[in-house]
UniProtKB/TrEMBL annotation:
It is found in: Cell inner membrane. This is C4-dicarboxylate transporter. Belongs to the DcuA/DcuB transporter (TC 2.A.13.1) family. The chain crosses the membrane at residues 30-46, 53-72, 92-115, 136-165, 171-194, 234-252, 272-289, 301-320, 340-357, 364-384, 421-443. It holds the Pfam family DcuA_DcuB. The keyword Protein biosynthesis does not apply. It is a multi-pass membrane protein. It comes from Parasutterella secunda. Keywords: Cell inner membrane, Cell membrane, Membrane, Transmembrane, Transmembrane helix, Transport. Responsible for the transport of C4-dicarboxylates.
Length: 444
C-alpha cells in the first residue's frame, strides 16, 4: 500500500511540475523539472537518472552554428528569399505560404525564421482578397511541425540520440519524416482552403472596414532593392554544406571511423558526428564571412535555443528519474500496449507534448521509453509528428499571428481551444503519422 501511495504521490509531483513549468515556457519548464527532481530525490529517495547529455550537446552545437549564421546575416537573406517567393504567387498563398514557411524551418531547424515571415503571409493574403485565416493557420501549424523534417532541429537531435542504440541512420529517419511532412502539409492546406466565408463577406472584416480599423497597406518599393552581400550568401552556402555533410556521413556509415576496444568494434556515433560537424562549420562561417565576435551569441536564435536546452534538460531529467524508478512497471504496461495497439504510444506522445509544449522535450523524454519497450524503430519514426501537440493551447506563434491578421479572420476563440489553428493542427499530425506509417514499411 505504501509503495502504491508513493507511486501516485511521485506521479503527481511530476505532472504538477510539468504542468506548472509548461505555463512559463522553456526556462520555466526546465526550472520546474529541476524542482521535481529535487523532490523525487531528496524527498522520496529516488535515484536520479542521467540527463540526456548527448541530446543536449547536439542541440547546443546546432544552436551555435545557426546563431553564427544569423550573426553573418544568413538568416536575413533567407527571410528575404521567403518574402520574394510569397509575393510571387499571391492568389495561391494558402498553398504557397505553409510550404515556404516550412522550408526555412527545415533548413535552419528553428521556427524563429518562419516567425519573421508570418506578417508577410497575412499581408499578401489580405491584398489578394484571400481570407488570411486560411494561410496563417496552415503556415503556423506547418512551420511548427516542420522540426520533424529538419536534420538540424532539436527534436530531430533527440530522436537521433534515442534511436542510436537501434543503429538507425539519419537518412532513414529523413526518408520517412520528410515525405510524410510534405503529404501532411498538403493535407493541412486543403483542410483550410475553403474554411470560413470569403474575406469580403466576413462580418468582422466588414465591421473593421466600416469603423476605419482596417486600412489596406500601401507597400512602397524600397529606393534600393535588397542586394545580399557576399558574406550573407557565403554563410548560407557554408551552412547548407554542413547540413549536407551530416546527411552524407550519416547515410554512408562506412565513411565513419571505427575503433576496436576490448575486442569490440565501435563506430563513431551519429550524435557525435552532428556535434563536431556543426561546430566545425560554425567556425568556417566565422572565418570566411568575418563575423564579429559580438554577434556570435547576440541574436534571437541563440537566446531561444538556450531556452529550449534548459527546458529539455529539466523535463527530461525529471521524467527519466521517475520512469527509471518504476521501469519494470512501465515496461510491462507499455509492452502490453505496444503488442496489442502500438499506435496508442502516439496518443501518449501527443498528450505529453500538449502539456509540456515542446516537441524536443517530449522526444527526449519518451522516445527512449518507446525503444526500451520494444516498439519498432520504423513505427517510432512514423509517430514522430505526434510529439507536436503544442498547438492545442495557443502559444507565442499563434497569438502573434492572430495579431498580424488585421482583418480579424484569425481568432483564438472564447474557450481557449476553439481557435483557428486547432483543425489544421490535428489534420497535420494525423495525416503525418498515417503517411509515415506506410513509408516506414519501405525504409525499415
Amino acid at each position: 500500500m505504501e509503495t502504491d501511495l508513493n507511486f501516485w504521490l511521485q506521479l503527481a509531483v511530476m505532472l504538477v511540475c510539468i504542468g506548472v513549468g509548461g505555463r512559463f515556457g522553456g526556462v520555466g519548464l526546465g526550472a520546474a523539472g529541476g524542482l521535481g527532481v529535487s523532490i523525487l530525490v531528496l524527498g522520496f529517495g529516488l535515484q536520479p537518472a542521467s540527463p540526456p547529455v548527448s541530446t543536449l550537446l547536439i542541440i547546443v552545437a546546432v544552436i551555435a552554428c545557426t546563431s553564427i549564421l544569423q550573426g553573418a546575416g544568413g538568416l536575413d537573406l533567407l527571410v528575404r528569399v521567403a518574402e520574394k517567393m510569397l509575393r510571387k504567387w499571391p492568389s495561391a498563398i494558402t498553398i504557397v505560404g505553409p510550404f515556404v514557411c516550412s522550408l526555412f524551418v527545415v533548413l535552419c531547424g528553428t521556427a524563429y525564421v518562419a516567425f519573421a515571415v508570418y506578417p508577410v503571409v497575412a499581408e499578401v493574403a489580405a491584398s489578394a482578397k484571400v481570407r488570411p485565416e486560411r494561410p496563417i493557420a496552415a503556415s503556423v501549424i506547418s512551420a511548427g511541425i516542420a522540426v520533424v523534417a529538419s536534420p538540424m532541429s532539436a527534436a530531430m537531435a533527440a530522436l537521433v540520440a534515442s534511436l542510436a542504440i537501434l543503429d538507425v541512420s539519419l537518412i532513414q529517419i529523413l526518408a520517412v519524416s520528410v515525405p510524410a511532412f510534405i503529404v501532411a502539409t498538403f493535407c493541412t492546406c486543403l483542410s483550410v482552403f475553403w474554411k470560413g466565408t470569403e474575406l469580403e463577406k466576413d462580418p468582422e472584416f466588414i465591421r473593421r472596414v466600416q469603423s476605419g480599423q482596417y486600412q489596406e497597406l500601401i507597400v512602397t518599393k524600397e529606393d534600393k532593392p535588397f542586394v545580399p552581400t557576399k558574406a550573407q550568401k557565403l554563410s548560407v552556402g557554408i551552412f547548407l554544406l554542413g547540413v549536407v555533410t551530416v546527411i552524407l556521413f550519416g547515410t554512408f556509415k562506412e565513411l565513419l571511423p571505427s575503433w576496436e576496444m576490448a575486442g569490440k568494434v565501435s563506430t563513431l556515433p551519429i550524435p557525435s558526428l552532428i556535434q563536431m560537424i556543426m561546430l566545425a562549420f560554425g567556425l568556417f562561417i566565422i572565418v570566411f564571412c568575418k563575423v564579429p565576435s559580438s554577434k556570435f551569441a547576440s541574436g534571437s536564435v541563440f537566446v531561444s535555443g538556450l531556452i529550449g536546452v534548459v527546458g529539455v534538460f529539466g523535463v527530461s531529467w525529471l521524467t527519466g528519474t521517475f520512469f527509471e524508478a518504476y521501469k519494470p512497471l512501465f515496461v510491462g504496461l507499455f509492452t502490453d500496449m505496444a503488442q496489442s495497439a502500438p499506435m496508442l504510444f502516439g496518443v501518449v506522445l501527443f498528450c505529453f507534448s500538449a502539456v509540456i509544449l515542446s516537441p524536443s522535450a517530449t522526444t527526449a523524454a519518451l522516445m527512449p521509453l518507446g525503444v526500451s519497450i520494444g516498439i519498432p524503430a520504423g513505427l517510432l519514426v512514423a509517430l514522430f509528428p505526434a510529439t507536436c501537440g503544442d498547438f492545442i493551447i495557443p502559444g507565442g506563434a499563434q497569438i502573434g499571428c492572430t495579431a498580424f491578421d488585421r482583418t480579424g479572420t484569425t481568432r483564438l476563440g472564447k474557450y481557449v481551444v476553439n481557435h483557428s489553428y486547432i483543425i489544421p493542427g490535428f489534420v497535420h499530425v494525423i495525416s503525418g503519422v498515417a503517411a509515415g506509417y506506410f513509408l516506414s514499411f519501405i525504409f525499415f
